UniProtKB/TrEMBL annotation:
This is Elongation factor 4. Keywords: Cell membrane, GTP-binding, Hydrolase, Membrane, Nucleotide-binding, Protein biosynthesis. GO terms for molecular function: GTP binding; GTPase activity; ribosome binding; translation elongation factor activity. It is found in: Cell membrane. It comes from Neolewinella xylanilytica.
Amino acid sequence: MKNIRNFCVIAHIDHGKSTLSDRLLDFTQSVNERERMDQQLDDMDLERERGITIKSHAIQMHYPHEDGEIYTFNMIDTPGHVDFSYEVSRSIAACEGALLLVDATQGIQAQTISNLFLALEHELEIIPVLNKVDMETAMIEEMADQMIELTGCSREDIILASGKTGIGVPEIMKAVVERIPAPSGDPEAPLQALIFDSVFNPFRGVIAYVRVMNGELNKHDNLRFIATESVYEANEVGAMEITPKPQDKISCGNVGYIVTGLKTSSEIKVGDTVTLEDRPGKRLAGFEEVKPMVFAGIFPLDNDDFEPLRDSLEKLQLNDASLVFEPETSAALGYGFRCGFLGMLHLEIVQERLFREFNMDVITTVPNVTYRVTDTKGNVSEIRNPAELPDVNHRARVDEPIISAQIITTTDYIGAIMTLCIDKRGTLTKQTYLSPERVELHFVLPLAEIVFDFYDRLKSISRGYASFDYQPKGYEETDLVRMDIKLNGENVDALSALVHRSKAEQIGRQMCKKLRELLPRQQFVIAIQAAIGAKVIARETLSAMRKDVTAKCYGGDISRKRKLLEKQKAGKRKMRQFGKVEVPQKAFLDVLKLD
Ligand code: GDP
Ligand code: MG
């Protein structure tokens, strides 16, 4: 145990975590050149393109230190986005130390701070690393001062590094041995292993990543997963180097993987404790059932694709236990699914994976958060769908989820960000200067307001110089209404939205205006209306089309005329019909980009 070091790398998105992790791997020559890809730690295409790490991984390295001993390093990669913060907290709980990586051209950002606080809560030893020092725009001394201020470290503690050139990598390896404590734990005690991640492998089933806190985990042990109350034999256990290396056991204090043979990821819960069936240990602290926060309907573009869509969602769920779905019907869109996501990024990822991996073209309805509705008899239920909101006579109160948010920005943008957050029904609770130019703002905000165009607006008003992070903070009473969109009097249920009463008119007006731009002109006038119940709160009119598209062919050229008509027909397949009005798929996707 004394030669084991378990650590994670915490950083804001794009501060160079994946690049530096690759460098550390290169350094210990764990990397077989043939297996090497550009960014080994991000193994999904989508991750590579977006430059984010969706699933965390644990990589084991063997490092010969100058004291003549060989050390086993378990480096745990953590996801870098707010939607996945529970996974980050479990990865941190599996470690004794953390590399706190800060981009020397960017400085401390919202996620640097929230992840640092998580690490400090778990009493991790922090190694401050200032990254990208090779860049001309690096402001080393200024950023070092920020880190000292934030962590209370001294200037000598800070390692200057570059994942690009490899500067600082030997110093980091040395610091991991010398500054991060070896794990403690009792090898003789009953087994307690923390699951901090799981992945689905089509050939092997679910693979769980664990950190053994006490006892040890042997191949062929009968394992009990405490939260799911299931018992399985460990078919294979081992250490994850770049490829899996099967072993006889995972020793006390160490990190490894278990091939469970389970067929769905929902049978393994991140944060759960693995113990032995015949000598059970207690559940480790900190387990939480991760609940989806944002819901939206997902409908196939073509009604015949309902079953294939179900198939695709089931396959996605195999390696994404936080995705939930159930069948839903819409008068406008037919059969589809109501899906639950951890947040907006998670929703986007699912939508994109459906398209790329399964070739599924889908329509996503207006997303909403979950609301708690108390009826007149005092019964509380959760609603996930605009159609489920009981009318005013049948509800006593509605509560909505609240978050506590941190935004870090430069002083120039404080005013604009305050205006945005207040418009989003937020309250400023704290304002801290990190340096004369940089400020950390704390807000309490309704989660529902983040779901509507928050990120885009924050980004545009701050020209990208603002970082954002949040944590859930319970529920508070709200004044909720359902806003419907009507086309020539016909309700388009897929465009209904749950909104705060004070926002209904503004959002209604924006949606109508946007729809007027998005809908193609048709043979007749179209009235676009937003309404609460019978009361119309906004209205736009789209005038009729003037000319027949084939008119410009002068009658003579038959083949050109046919081509045009065919093109029109193909376009129609991407349309949805409401009464007589046709709505293109793009309208459903773009109507929420309100500006
Ligand atoms: P992550 O989101 O924290 O994993 O960040 P990545 O490792 O994906 O890096 C984000 C971007 O910064 C990529 O374009 C990298 O090529 C670049 N980058 C990472 N580390 C360095 C560095 O040390 N120096 C320079 N110049 N660029 C870097
Ligand atoms: Mg990364």
